[in-house]
């Protein structure tokens, strides 16, 4: 038992270097956040006007961090093949999004003012903190949605969920709720959501629909 645990730990540790990508990503992301102050392209869809602002969606929006940490850790420890797929799919997609932000600097103009909302509660307080920390630029494609889809796809295709339909439903349901939260909190336009999902889904035929070798 102890030998098996040590072997699993050694195998998983050799795949941990993928997480160094976060250093590059955070530097790149915040550099763009500070330098893109006047986006050239404003993203907006008529559908955005039909989606009401709801500050309580800040909680599923923030749950993205728990999904990210949980799925990454579980796959790293229990299914390194699926972990590798997740890293390839998610990190390449994030890189693509950052390149788009550089080439096509974009932003939003759909965020309401706190005075317009006219409500005072803990969710609204959190929303205002998010708006202060996260400028309405670099939004399309949505990395929040792209990475959420990647995590649901990778987890549902892993050995952890292969025979457990309820876990697959939970993974995709959680990711869908996060995607919905991005538009209800006016963090993203519906266009950002679909573009983010497209960036994630492009990997499915490559990583998950290839015919298995006999």
From TrEMBL:
Gene3D superfamilies linked: Phosphatidic acid phosphatase type 2/haloperoxidase
Keyword Transmembrane set for record: yes
Lineage: superkingdom: Bacteria
Family annotation (InterPro entries): PAP2/HPO, PAP2/HPO_sf
Transmembrane segments: 20-37, 57-78, 85-104, 190-209
Coiled-coil segments on the chain, per record: none
Keywords: Membrane, Transmembrane, Transmembrane helix
Domain Phosphatidic acid phosphatase type 2/haloperoxidase: 140-210
Pfam family membership, one: PAP2
Protein's name in the database: Phosphatase PAP2 family protein
Taxonomic path: Bacteria, Bacillati, Bacillota, Clostridia, Eubacteriales
